[in-house]
Amino acid sequence: MTVGAGSGVNFEYKGEPLPWDSWATATGLPIYRGHHIEDLRTIELGWWEERQCKAAFIQLSGQEGICEGRVTEIPPGGSLPEMRFGVDELVYVLSGYGATSVSSEGRPAKSFEWQPRSMFVVPRFARRRYANLSGVAPVRLLHYSYFPLALCATPDPEMFFSPTLERPELVYQEGLYADPSQRGLSGDLGGSVEGGDSYWSGNFFPDLGVWDRLEENKGRGAGGLIVRMSFPSSELTTHMSVFPALTYKKAHRHGPGRLIVIPAGEGYSVMWREGKEKVFLPWHEGSVLVPPDRWFHQHFNVGAKPARYLALHPPRMFGGHAEAIEDRKRDQIEYPDEDPIIRDRFEAELTKRGLRSEMPERAYRDRAWSWKPGQKA
Ligand SMILES: [Fe+2]
Predict the structure, then answer these.
(1) Cα separation of 331 and 263, whole Å?
(2) How many Å lie between the centroid of ligand 1 and the Cα of residue 73?
(3) Stated pTM of the model
(4) Which of 106, 246, 267, 322 has the lowest tally of Cβ within 10 angstroms?
């Protein structure tokens, strides 16, 4: 069942579904397509007999067969059967309280507990179990992986669910699921983290709704803050942006495969292919959206509190920036160069809510100026 099929959806290439599309379709589960889903906590799921749970796939335009999004639900007091998966899997907790245990080679499991807005990575090949620790409320998890890419290389799904390989050194590594630690510059990671600043490394981030170890992200405007995250022994990376109430970021564009989920805030995003019509997408906690390949996109906070968005990155070769090779300015629109509809719409949305823009006037006059959170000019 395909839900929300929209324009620009790359379901088929050259008339043939990609291996992941064929596999996901065969499960009979809902596959959500289009540009965004306003609330993953409430979307309709289907029954997945093989996994003994309710689930749905997220394959929005812009995931481009690179990454898989999947929502699973665990009923109150329930747990999912143990399973294995041959690729690294990032899990973001949409709702509920629970625990995960991971093990390898029949050795004792390592367990940890999580809550809404936790994020963790389960290493490839590990045996994993997910349990709901509440007897009242269901759990919803968002899983993100590069499974569609892996299936292009080896179109045999069973190989990834019944792997013969064990990697105990990943499961029993020191500090697995301990507090993240701050690591050096992104250069230390071979450039796999965007930008040139520091990143936090760990397999468990307890609550991205309150994570406060942030640094300035001057280039993208709005006095925004950022944390970049990486995961030991994995190619997965993420970043989270935090930006103040009643402001908006600069429009920019890059490559495909970035799934954006909202841990906190109220706002909307605008996305458009250069020269084409703009699409406006409202969001709040639990929303998800994906900017299609090389589409401009821009994020707006129309709430009274700082907003947060978490971007789950594709493999690093899908960065898609023009920087260095071409002109970075072609990939970012400074405030003075915006289509007037951008500012007008933002101010109209605030007026509807009885609020006023906190965007400094100077931002619209001076392309080179950047400001800190709370700074006015
Ligand atoms: Fe972006």
Answers:
(1) 26
(2) 28
(3) 0.92
(4) 106
In this structure, the answer to whether residues 190 and 113 fall within a common structural domain is no
Which of 171, 203, 234 terminates a domain? The answer is: 171
Distance 134 CA to ligand 1 centre (A): 36
Domain, as residue range, for 288: 181-364
- Return the structure tokens found at 41: 């906590």
Q: In CATH, what number is assigned to the domain containing residue 112?
A: 2.60.120.10
Beta bridge partners of 93: 141
Type and span of the H or E element at 349: helix 340-352
Cα(254) to centroid(ligand 1), Å:
6
Ligand 1 mean position to 337 CA, how many Å? 18
Q: Who contacts 264 (Cβ-Cβ below 8 Å, separation ≥6)?
A: 117, 209, 285, 305, 306, 307, 308
The per-residue pLDDT for range 307-346, each reduced to its tens digit, is 999 999 999 888 876 444 445 567 899 999 999 999 999 9
* Distance of CA 241 from the midpoint of ligand 1 (Å): 10
Beta bridge partners of 57: 31, 70
